[in-house]
Specification:
Chain A is of the alpha/beta class and 432 residues long. The first copy, chain A, contains 15 helices and 16 strands. The radius of gyration of chain A is 24 Å and the shape is globular.
Chain lengths: 432, 432
């Protein structure tokens, strides 16, 4: 099968079409396709995704060939090892991508769920039901797996999607998308329900960000600079994850061994994920602070502390002001000694990015106060902040972890890709 | 009591303070006050609002004096009758404002509601609980009642609020706010939980719109040009109501008398509200279209129709293309004759502002298809679109009707002023 030709022909900018005109054309087609998609049953949407997964497997040769072109071009441009690694596909990775699409097919469909119901004294029957958001724009870097993941989550929840991946991955993304579309079409999903912005022109990103009324929500997936640019320029609502400056506070009542284990896991299990701990707050009354710090230093973690933290272990370096606001994403940790729960919560309020913050405490009153008063998307008691993840939360998959305050917070999966409408059933009521 | 002096002294721009610095100072104080507010119980918040209502009544003389100053200045500036009327307070209107605050005190507090709960196989207990959004900015025109309404709704749901009203109402707003603050403080709510931006400098609005990270959400309350400006310039998320281009489609199966009554009510009960019908779609198969059109024309409604609608009654004027996209807010209606349900829904999809759209039909299959497929914030069957209102929906009050797609749609009351956080209760779990 050669899946590349059709798609490339369909979506190419026509002649001297501007990025705005291109985005408007694709978005208009996407919105029309979404109206068809919104009428499909749960079963049909799941079938369509299974067919898409099947076609991803069937198109292995085409996809890996397209990826080889991207890799060759990236090497010629002098891309570094980590970036090349994210771009590279092989048979195993592609099988993983297809499996993930199939898993999304198996998730429960949130569309149609009745959120609330009431009857008014005049007999009007009110209900609020979940519906898809509409057309979702995904802006991401050169990770071809995002193409399939994001498309699957959007489609499962009845949304059309407009994808704009990093230009280095364009051939890979085209091939992945063409395979998926071939599967989706077998199940009656219009091809325009999932489209790729096919130009390498960076102005297309700007056109997406300002396409209010055409694109309903933008989800940026990538590093801080990408997300910051999207947030600064967008006129379309953005569901974004910016920083994960996560704190763990060890209360006076904490079990020392639990505190040690949680601190090691929260910082060092994987240092590069957004839920990893970046600041450890040790209560002055916690008797085993030195052991926790020792365990982290012994495990190879670089520690930067205030003067009281430095007194706990000679390996603790002095922290600068900026350390309390830094997401290291590395084996580096800032450590402060705090005078009680209130001081810990003040530090969290001042420095947290409101992603995930945790307390280790045996005293339930302290734990419940922390849960009640710390205002982060995820607040944990006696658990590693590395659990901040859609799959670990039982959501099946996630489109991202939202650090904003509106619409959806924390791990966002299918429900976060829906909105609602009010249905009012009357029998001829006029308003007095 | 003279409530004006303290507040005026507190919030005035200090020396050559820029609008950005002023907004940042007020927002920082508001955020700190919100942390206190978030810890207050339901009962305390309700008490505080009742005390605020009491002080609004007690400060009648001060408030009406301040309002008289605004009125005199507005008259000197040559303000028109309708604008003066919106600005003017009297004892009856002020009593209504105080009553409304008391009613909000009686509404159930959404904060703390558990939205969902689950337990993971590893024993982690997850829950999602409602919390206040944080600091809400309200930007509105010269209607002093909005000052009290918006403040009450924000406070009831645990939010701090930064108010920026039209400059013509500045003295009235100051006096209303000072009275409310005096009541709130009696009940332990910090004064900075509800603040007015005290300058007439329009740059302060721009400073609010770009105060991302300081203001969590902006709610514009006012006409289209205000809302459009806010949406265009805001970096802070906006909960906005733009247009109400509401359709009523009369299906072939509609009861003729019901169709006539609903059409009259939907258009003419009050023409200036956002839920009033702006376009009537009559099915070619509906036998009583002429009677419905006649009833509207007899009632004094100007009708603008397509050629088939014009054939129904000589009083139907020809409609131009722009009529299908116009929110008249007046006794003017566009009328089209459509070929069946599908064509009606196509017209709605093309021209609706997705506020409220209705079908009149005796055939339940047609009604349910309309409910399922029309994608508006409110979709109605056999009822007047004028029911699109928070109080009519049983929400008690509304901060506005949202026509966007994210966070909250349709009438937005206390629940729409909340967000949620995830609570995770563990027993020492580390992530494998």
């Amino acid at each position: 099968m050669n899946v590349l030709t059709t798609l490339a022909a369909d979506n190419q900018p026509a002649g001297d079409e501007s990025p705005e005109a291109l985005v408007a054309r694709l978005a208009t087609a996407g919105r029309a396709a979404q109206r068809v998609l919104a009428r499909l049953t749960d079963v049909r949407k799941a079938e369509a995704l299974r067919a898409a997964a099947g076609m991803l497997r069937a198109a292995e040769r085409d996809i890996l060939e397209a990826n080889a072109q991207d890799i060759a071009a990236a090497e010629a441009k002098g891309l570094t090892g980590a970036m090349l690694d994210r771009l590279r596909l092989d048979a195993g990775r592609l099988a993983g991508i297809a499996d993930a699409v199939e898993q999304v097919a198996g998730l429960p469909d949130p569309v149609g769920e009745v959120i609330s119901k009431s009857e008014r004294p005049n007999g009007l029957q009110l209900s609020r039901v979940r519906i898809p958001i509409g057309l979702i724009g995904i802006i991401y870097e050169s990770r071809p797996n995002v193409t399939a993941d994001a498309a699957a989550l959007c489609l499962r929840s009845g949304n059309a999607v407009l994808l704009r991946g990093g230009s280095e991955a364009l051939q890979s993304n085209r091939a992945i998308l063409a395979a998926m579309v071939a599967g989706l079409e077998q199940a009656g999903v219009p091809a325009a329900a999932v489209q790729l912005v096919p130009t390498q022109d960076r102005a297309a990103v700007g056109a997406m960000l300002t396409a209010a009324g055409l694109i309903d929500m933008i989800v940026p997936r990538g590093g801080k600079s990408l997300v910051a640019r999207v947030q600064a320029d967008a006129r379309v609502p953005v569901l974004a994850h910016l920083d994960g400056i996560c704190h763990t506070y060890v209360h006076a009542s904490a079990d020392p061994e639990m505190a040690r284990r949680i601190a090691l896991n929260a910082k060092l299990r994987r240092t590069g994920i957004c839920g990893s701990m970046e600041t450890l707050l040790l209560d002055t009354q916690f008797p085993a602070s030195a052991q926790v710090v020792k365990a982290l230093a012994d495990a190879g973690c670089e520690l930067r502390g205030d003067s009281r933290a430095q007194a706990l272990d000679p390996r603790v370096l002095p922290a600068g002001d900026e350390d309390w606001d830094t997401e290291y994403l590395d084996a580096v940790l800032s450590v402060a000694v705090v005078d009680g729960l209130e001081a810990a919560m003040d530090h969290v309020a001042a420095h947290s990015s409101h992603h995930t913050d945790a307390i280790v405490a045996a005293d339930p009153a302290a734990a419940e106060r922390f849960l009640a008063e710390v205002d982060s998307a995820i607040v944990m008691v006696n658990a590693s902040s590395q659990f901040a993840d859609g799959a670990e939360f039982g959501l099946g998959a996630e489109i991202g972890i939202a650090t904003g305050r509106l619409h959806a917070r924390g791990p966002v999966a299918l429900e976060g890709l829906t909105t609602y409408k009010w249905l009012v059933r009357g029998t001829g009521q006029e308003r007095p």
